[in-house]
């Protein structure tokens, strides 16, 4: 029985192919890529370039050098925002942004560098019109989270970005942390895609990516060694060296490459939706409130009138060995919108390693807890 339901935080377990690839890398060619002319360094470099190409293909980027390896999504988002905005700029963002976006924006705002406008949806989900009203001459960036890590809601990022491009010069940055591997996102009207390897791409932690549209030039927010043009006192302007300083996470990149290849052979979205439907049928029989979006993935936020999310997560963990996540999930504004701030919700989230039986086990456990709470309450 798979009782790990915290896949929105990080997917676990990982496919055997990912584990094997990391092990192969560490045992056979874990030399420093791009920092030596010898055979092992070249082999390491070749793996990095293959991964760059395949990530590019996944996100519709034909320029290999526009795929930048980062530590995680947080790093990629910092790189994108800090590398793009200038003093006096205005940035729009959704209420569903993770703190990986919000804290960068609010810090820059506090320092007086930019103005931030959090756009609220008029209806249940965002429409392009929600953003058009807020665009002005100073708006140079719009940050969109593709899938909420609180409710699983899918935002119509392509339609929004198309409208933004038709009406302004602002760039669109899409955070695909929760959607990559489940939904397709391509460059086009979207200018920058930031993601992380350890969620639905099934890679290890410690590796993420930023994919840039053609002609987008960011200032580096981290400078240092590139193994290239070492005589130059300043960071080389060429991509990807401009944005990639320091030794990359080669085993992480190897694992991410294997994860991307593995997930591309799965019908991950259909599997996810099947599990969501089973969950929906069963949870109705309880007093749990589910903050279910009209269009969403298997990231499920719940509250119960008789117990706090934290207590529910503790009961699940200590009594039933079920892993979940309680609280604000690093997305405080999403909870303000839902009316679940500051206590947050109990979040359960699925992966390709769950079967229908696993989800039934989860719902039966939630029903048992509900019955006990009702008796006690
Ligand atoms: C929507 C979203 N953005 C960004 C992140 C940050 O990802 P990482 O911790 O890998 O940087 C997360 C992680 O939970 C997320 O769900």
TrEMBL record:
Superkingdom in the source lineage: Bacteria
Domain called Aminotransferase class V: residue spans: 3-361
Cofactor(s) recorded in Swiss-Prot or TrEMBL: pyridoxal 5'-phosphate
UniProt keyword Oxidoreductase, yes or no: no
Pfam families assigned: Aminotran_5 (PF00266)
PROSITE patterns: AA_TRANSFER_CLASS_5
Signal peptide: none
Keyword check for DNA repair: no
Keywords: Aminotransferase, Pyridoxal phosphate, Transferase
InterPro entries recorded: Aminotrans_V_dom, Aminotrans_V_PyrdxlP_BS, PyrdxlP-dep_Trfase, PyrdxlP-dep_Trfase_major, PyrdxlP-dep_Trfase_small
A GO term, aspect molecular function: transaminase activity
Family per similarity comment: Belongs to the class-V pyridoxal-phosphate-dependent aminotransferase family.
Protein name listed in UniProt: Aminotransferase class V-fold PLP-dependent enzyme
Originating species: Thermospira aquatica
């Amino acid at each position: 029985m798979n009782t790990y339901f915290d896949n929105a935080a990080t997917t676990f377990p990982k496919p055997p192919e990912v584990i094997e690839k990391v092990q192969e890398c560490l045992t056979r060619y874990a030399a420093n890529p791009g920092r030596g002319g010898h055979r092992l360094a070249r082999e390491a470099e070749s793996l990095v370039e293959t991964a760059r190409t395949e990530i590019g293909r996944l996100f519709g980027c034909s320029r290999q050098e526009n795929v930048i390896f980062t530590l995680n999504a947080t790093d990629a988002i910092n790189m994108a925002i800090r590398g793009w905005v200038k003093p006096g700029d205005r940035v729009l963002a959704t209420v569903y942004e993770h703190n990986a976006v919000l804290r960068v924006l609010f810090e820059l705002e506090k320092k007086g560098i930019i103005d931030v406008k959090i756009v609220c949806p008029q209806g249940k989900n965002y429409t392009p019109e929600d953003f058009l009203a807020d665009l002005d001459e100073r708006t140079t960036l719009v940050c969109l989270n593709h899938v909420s890590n609180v409710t699983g809601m899918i935002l119509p990022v392509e339609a929004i970005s198309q409208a933004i491009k038709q009406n302004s010069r602002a760039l669109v940055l899409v955070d695909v942390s929760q959607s990559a591997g489940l939904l397709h996102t391509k460059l086009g009207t979207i200018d920058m895609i930031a993601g992380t390897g350890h969620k639905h791409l099934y890679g290890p932690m410690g590796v993420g990516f930023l994919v840039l549209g053609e002609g987008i030039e960011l200032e580096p927010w981290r400078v240092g060694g590139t193994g290239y043009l070492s005589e130059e006192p300043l960071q080389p302007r060429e991509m990807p060296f401009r944005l990639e300083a320091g030794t990359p996470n080669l085993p992480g990149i190897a694992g991410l490459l294997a994860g991307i290849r593995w997930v591309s052979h799965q019908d991950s979205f259909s599997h996810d939706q099947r599990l969501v439907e089973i969950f929906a049928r069963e949870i109705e029989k309880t007093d749990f409130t589910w903050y279910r979006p009209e269009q969403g993935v298997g990231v499920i936020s719940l509250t119960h009138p008789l117990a706090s999310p934290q207590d529910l997560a503790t009961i699940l963990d200590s009594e039933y060995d079920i892993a979940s996540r309680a609280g604000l999930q690093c997305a405080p504004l999403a909870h303000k919108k839902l009316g679940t701030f500051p206590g947050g919700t109990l979040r359960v989230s699925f992966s390709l390693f769950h079967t229908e039986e696993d989800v039934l086990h989860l719902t039966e456990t939630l029903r048992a807890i509900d019955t006990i709470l009702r008796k006690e309450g």
